[in-house]
Amino acid sequence: MRALFILLLSVFTLSQGRSQSHLTLIYTGSNNNVAGAVQKANEILNSTFFYEQIRKIAKFDHSSLTGQQVADRMQSASQQIRVVRKIKPIANASTKTSDKIKISRSLFGLDSTGKFVLSIAVNTLIHETVHAVDFLNTGSEFTHDGNRSDGQENTAPWMIGDIAERMVLENRQ
Ligand SMILES: [Zn+2]
User: Fold this and answer.
1) Domains of the chain, earliest start first
2) Which residues surround ligand 1, an ion (CB under 5 A)?
3) Ligand 1 centre and the CA of 132: distance in Å?
4) What is the mean pLDDT of residues 78-102?
5) Distance between Cα 96 and ligand 1 center (Å)
6) Cβ burial 110-147 (10 Å sphere, 16+ → b, else e)
7) How far is the centre of ligand 1, averaged over its atoms, from the C-alpha of 32 (Å)?
8) pTM of the entire structure?
9) Ligand 1 geometric centre to CA of 147 (Å)
10) 3 falls in which pLDDT band (50, 70, 90)?
11) Which residue of 41, 63, 95, 152 could cross-link 125, Cys pair, CB 3.0 to 4.6 Å?
């Protein structure tokens, strides 16, 4: 009985340690497109290759931090971020805190013809994750202006989202 208790305790401790050790997106809804995109985004957030690509970026617009510094912040963040549905969609997603990403089901992951594309959805989730990590502090250290990508391509959320999108398209881990 006592051995069983110790075994259960260590299994619990191990699983706690694993789930707390890195950025993780959590989705408990029933939409398969969202669930698939969240799973893929979590694989990317666990990928060494992903952080290597971020570290190659010397500077971002609207930030004084290097790719190395932003990658370090993302890799050291042991944050669980819930992906929830946005009630009144204006943009396809928005993030204003470190623990919640709001997505619009009617706009999330869609290409210009209105078709759901996994790589676009993952780009959005990783872009929003960058905002969430920024919100572990002020939320303004590595962000962008406005809701459109025009002229904002070289900011951290857009560049890092694009890295994730390319990884999905090239099927990289
Ligand atoms: Zn953004």
Assistant:
1) 22-169 (3.40.390)
2) 157
3) 10
4) 90
5) 10
6) beeeeebbebbbbbbbbbbbbbbbbbbeebebbbbeee
7) 24
8) 0.87
9) 6
10) low
11) 41
